[in-house]
Design brief:
Family: Belongs to the TPP enzyme family.
Keywords: Thiamine pyrophosphate
CATH architecture of the largest domain: 3-Layer(aba) Sandwich
Helix content: 25-40%
Pfam families: TPP_enzyme_C, TPP_enzyme_M, TPP_enzyme_N
InterPro entries: DHS-like_NAD/FAD-binding_dom, Myo_inos_IolD, THDP-binding, Thiamin_PyroP_enz_cen_dom, Thiamin_PyroP_enz_TPP-bd_dom, TPP_enz, TPP_enzyme_TPP-bd
CATH superfamily of the largest domain: Thiamin diphosphate (ThDP)-binding fold, Pyr/PP domains
CATH class of the largest domain: Alpha Beta
Largest sheet: 6 strands, parallel
CATH topology of the largest domain: Rossmann fold
Strand content: 15-25%
Number of strands: 23
Distance between the termini: 56 Å
Shape: globular
Radius of gyration: 25 Å
Number of domains: 3
Number of helices: 24
Protein name: 3D-(3,5/4)-trihydroxycyclohexane-1,2-dione acylhydrolase (Decyclizing)
């Protein structure tokens, strides 16, 4: 059929479907976030309008925000559905680069369709075009190359025939999953071609479950059998495989304590006797204690980033590492004995090979005992006291009111540590802590996407005042579009967690808390977050103290559920009270300084580096 490039692309989007974790099918692309400009309003915009009843289009108000909302859809659906965002060329396109970085770092699917300049170059230079003096083929969209798993610039309509299958491969592949960017020159969007009908035949994408190589799996089983103190580490790959149940059965059959990474949080019921808690800097002392004593670490579906490994000081120097991962890139890291496979398949077959082998009960009993100590510590942090509420207390209130269908999220500042370390799972795979890229502003935009994707329960996002000020425009987008969620805004007067890092490593308090920032005002202005959120179309619930938070949060949940708009809870929180797991983190402490405190911190950093394990034993 004769279609423009844009028309063909939209029809292809409509033809793609996906198999969800429960075995049902749904459209792969649930909708498109769009801000139209001269580079996409006529070609792609008209094509989307033709199918407005079949493919929802939501208007964003900041390109970064709407693209982050698209990322939120991918995470909330466990990578089974893909958010799409389109912009014009120039500043609109470049605004989406950050969102592509979020998707890339977190291995999440995202389809970006930025407009591009004319391939004919006849009207050059056009509005919003950045000219490159030495390479006329370069446009601002080349900035996406560093943060894309697949990038293409469509300079002829028929190129869709070869690039769309590759785009679908990356968006649905367990190993290669990440952002796809198809740059669309505005003249090519409008050009027509005789496309084969077969391009638009409905397709159901079923993520492949790669089985492990038998030799590699046998070697892994041999390594595990030597363990006296094995430890099972569950990452995001377990979530995306739907393998949480399989992982627990493996742990139970073989008596192996279980810990979780950031992306793996809420995969294990909190009170399970083998659950030792979350691992790493923002994790728990309980998990870190077991990791330090483990002799064989079975890491499943994790890339083992520095917050999980405490900059590679959390494991014993003589520990052996067995890595089960769908991506060979991740499986071979740090000298691991690599098993490249789907998490569910690998754990099933490894269980069969291990047979009746079990770790000692004395070791497996440690998990519950250590976690009980950590729970008591968190209980103490959550207990009511005088003064401003702490993050731990706020998380405790939200946790207590949440059910198994609810979904909680955050991204930056101090709240990731509070959710990762202090949250007690009430439902499987019900947390999104964007701590791969730790993108300020994802909290609100990603919550919009999660609210679109999740039909059951209430989405709650927790954020600080800094993230709110960084990117709040999608509050209005969500209110306008009728997507309800709860945002709990914790105002602690600045970038408090970076202030902690700054002063904790010997630096002077500078440019983080408002008290330490340059201003000519004796009484600087303060943001009225409640008034601002109300002006964006949200319901607002200002809270003066911890005592009023429970009632306000429950009321906000009801508004989000029944009025289909964001409900924002605002309260002042303590700027210097944190949940600490006692792990070390490598940061760049200056080797020379005018401050004695920094010199002392550098010496401590050197001591920490001496404990780093750069390469574990396969």
């Amino acid at each position: 059929m004769r279609l423009t490039t844009a028309q063909a692309l939209v029809r292809w989007l409509l033809a793609q479907h996906t198999e969800l974790l429960d075995g049902t099918t749904a459209p792969l692309f649930p909708g498109v976030f769009a801000i139209f400009g001269h580079g996409n309003v006529l070609g792609l915009g008209n094509a989307l309008e033709e199918h407005r009843d079949e493919l929802p289009v939501w208007r964003g108000h900041n390109e970064q925000g709407m693209a982050l909302a698209a990322v939120g859809i991918g995470k909330a659906t466990h990578r089974r559905r893909v958010g799409v965002a389109t912009s014009s060329i120039g500043p609109g396109a470049l605004n989406m680069v950050t969102a592509a970085g979020v998707a890339h770092a977190n291995r999440l699917p995202l389809l970006l369709l930025p407009g591009d300049t004319f391939t004919s170059r006849a009207p050059d230079p056009v509005l919003q075009q950045v000219e490159h003096f030495g390479d006329p083929t370069t446009t601002v969209n080349d900035a996406f190359r560093a943060v894309s798993r697949y990038f293409d610039r469509i300079t002829r309509p028929e190129q869709l025939l070869s690039t769309l299958p590759q785009a679908a491969r990356v968006l649905t592949d367990p190993a290669d999953c990440g952002p796809v960017v198809l740059a669309l020159p505005q003249d090519v969007q409008a050009e027509a071609h005789d496309f084969p009908d077969a391009l638009f035949t409905p397709v159901v994408h079923r993520p492949q479950r790669q089985r492990p190589d038998l030799r590699a799996l046998t070697a892994a089983a041999d390594a595990v059998r030597t363990a006296r103190r094995p430890l099972l580490v569950l990452g995001g790959g377990v979530r995306y495989s739907g393998a949480a149940g399989r992982a627990l059965r493996f742990a139970e059959q073989h008596g192996v304590p279980v810990v979780e990474t950031t992306a793996g949080r809420t995969l294990v019921p909190h009170d399970h006797p083998l659950h030792a808690g979350p691992l790493g800097i923002t994790g728990s002392t309980s998990a870190n204690v077991l990791a330090a004593e483990a002799d064989v670490v079975i890491a499943v579906g994790t890339r083992l980033q520095d917050f999980t490994t405490a900059s590679w000081t959390v494991f014993a120097p003589d520990a052996r590492l067995v890595s089960l991962n769908a991506a060979r890139f991740d499986a071979v890291k740090h000298g691991a004995l690599a098993v490249v496979a789907d998490a569910d398949e690998a754990l099933r077959e490894l269980t069969d090979l291990l047979g009746t082998w079990r770790a000692s009960s004395a070791w497996s009993d440690r998990a519950a005992a250590e976690r009980a100590r950590w729970d008591a510590h968190v209980d103490g942090l959550r207990a009511s006291g005088t003064g401003l509420p702490t993050y731990a207390q706020v998380v405790g209130v939200v946790n207590a009111a949440s059910g198994p269908e609810d979904y909680v999220m955050t991204a930056s500042g101090g709240l990731p540590g509070e959710l990762i370390g202090g949250w007690r799972a009430v439902g499987e795979a019900t947390m999104d802590v964007e701590y791969g890229f730790s993108c300020m502003g994802y909290e609100l935009a990603g919550a919009w996407g999660a609210a679109i994707a999740r039909k059951d329960g209430v989405v709650t996002t927790l954020l600080g005042d800094g993230s709110y000020l960084m990117l709040n425009s999608e509050l209005f987008s969500a209110a306008f579009a009728g997507h309800g969620f709860v945002a709990v805004v914790c105002d602690n007067d600045g970038y408090a967690v970076i202030h902690r890092l700054q002063t904790g490593q010997g630096g002077a308090a500078f440019n983080n808390l408002y008290d330490d920032c340059r201003t000519p005002h004796a009484k600087p202005p303060r943001t009225d977050f409640a008034a601002h959120a109300a002006a964006m179309g949200c319901a607002v619930f200002p809270v003066d103290d911890l005592g009023g938070l429970t009632e306000a949060y429950r009321a906000a949940r009801e508004v989000a559920r029944t009025e289909h708009r964001p409900a924002v809870v605002v309260l002042r929180t303590h700027p210097a009270a944190w949940t600490e797991a006692g792990a070390w983190w490598e940061v760049g402490v200056p080797e020379t300084s005018h401050r004695a405190e920094i010199a002392a911190a550098h010496a401590e950093a050197a001591a920490g580096k001496s404990r780093q394990v750069r390469y574990l034993n396969p």
